[in-house]
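Hi Y.,

Following your request, here is the sequence exactly as I used it, all 668 residues.
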Amino acid sequence: MEDNPAKRLKSTLSPVFEDVLKSDTFVDKSALMLAVFETDDKPMVLCTAPRRFGKTVNLSMMQRFLELEVDENGEEKTKVLKEKDNYKLFSSARFKLKVMENTKFVETHFGQYPIIEINFLCCDDVTSKSDAVNVCRSAISEAFRQHSYLYESKLSPLKDYEKKHCEQWCDEFTYTGIPDDKVIKGLGCLAAYLNKFHKRMVFLLVDEYDSIISKALYKVKNADPETELEELENAASFPIEVIGYALKKIPGIFKGAYITGILDVGGVAISTLLGNVLRRQFGTNNLCQDFYGFTEDEVCTLFNRFAVKKELREKAKAKYNGYLNGSKQCLYNPQTIVQFLGNLSLGEGALKNYWQQSGYIHNMYKLLEEGSVRRLLYELLQGVKEDFQFTLKPLDLSDLKSLHNILAKQSLTCREEIVVRFLVSLGYLTYSFDDHKLQIPIPELIDEFMKLLRAYFFERFGINRELAEDCSASFSKLTVLCGEGDLLAKFKEELANFQNSITCLLQRSTLIDPLNEATLQSIITLTCSKAGFLFGNEITIPIHRTKVDIVLFNDKSGIIMELKCGPNTVQDAFKQIFQNRYYNVFTNKKYFDERKKSPSLSFVMAMHVDSDNKGSVMCLRREDVIHVLDDLQLDARESSLEGRIEIAVNSMGEPFINTCCESAILVS
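Below is the corresponding structure, written out as tokens. Let me know if you'd prefer a different format.
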């Protein structure tokens, strides 16, 4: 008998509903259909969510529930509900599906509609309107092939020219010759033919409706800037025109439509063509909000099902929980959770960064060229952005053009608000509309942003990457050695190595002359944080209203750094740490709680860089501070180290600070 019941369980990343339903990572989202039809008897809904949040699986589920099951001749296989293959799939599920509990809804809608399922997923570049038309042409052809009986069946009521039209769309050679104006009408024609064949209303399911738009955003090119933006508009508009023509120009045929994608795009031929479509944006309060992403309760159910151990499940929840929907529920990326559960045999090795395996924003580093965006991201890397006034509205044509200018051409500015809407839609940021907080949702995305920032700053300041790696590696060794009481000699040796590495790094940099403290702070922060630390710059200590230059921290360890350039000395920098009470930074629980960390002081470090970019460092370890306090024999009833230091500073002042300075390690 197996010790771990999770070994008998299976997960799947398949986007096919039947595969997901049969897996042990299945989460019931079937009530989505009830929410969709609650909007209207003939619902037209556009629902957006970040990648890997279950859009395609939900679309597959809706298809299996709503579709009219026919044979190769287009005839309905059976009119008896319980004999339908799809009904057997839904009713025989191990996990009782919520939608099946609504008998009236099932009897009204199950297996009643010819389905047009079309996917505009674009794998190639879209550099022009012509490319966009080709993607749509191919997608429509694939949709026609799903209903080849329209022209093949002897029972088809279509006229000969209509059958010929269907055959042209289905043939892999002839469909490519269909002209652009006919492509726009293609989806509508298919709906009309299905309606005529079955004498039933049609339901439209559209996946990846914005894929062409996203590709055009990055790749549309033309030598003339005005022509390029016009080409972007034409390329981005075309898939909307295809969908809009079908829904608006072919009245009385559609029972409903459900459209999904990542970006909510408006004002690109969408204002009139999709004017009757209800928008359901991820992160806003709407009827569909609970059906994309896994909620806390759903994840707990899966963790129980897979017998995830308590310590591991808490680490997984801390690592992967961070998205918010309109009702303030915390959400998880479903694919991340499924992959984590699939790797449970690895123990803590299952806690990987799965986001990076599912894609990234092309040319995203170019966003950092916009100063306000760069400063905002830098601030978000340090914690939650409080009181951020923001409206999550659709991206219109002018927004797309602004994003294109910075992502593709890097020639013009782009408003911070547009970039935030873009990043929230893509899942790189999340926003709480109730308390106006903007934040990076999960730690693995913090890692992604840090990589981008390092690449940007290192290029801007001419930083040698190999030398930066040497500094990071040396700093990492210091953080390990600082806790080894018997290895003081090795700590001193490594501190000297770190100082030499910093000097070499700065002197070999080409674009930081003259060096100032702000630039030095960026370089040191991004270099040292690579050793496995989160960071904070200019972090406020509420009690004393002072700000620490750099704080580096992880689950347990915290490091304080003060930097100086010019006429000051490294001793001046070191004393300032105690004079300004920087050691109290770790009592700012609100800041660290938001990062789900509770570090304690490991060591304090001061750094000075002279006019020749030569660095000097001075360091005092935690245990050295304790020795100083013990030797002074001060009455220190406070249990925390910070409390003991505070008593010493208040009672002795400068003599205590000088003693700490004398006890610190100063590399000669």
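Residues 461-666 form one domain.

Thanks again,
Q.
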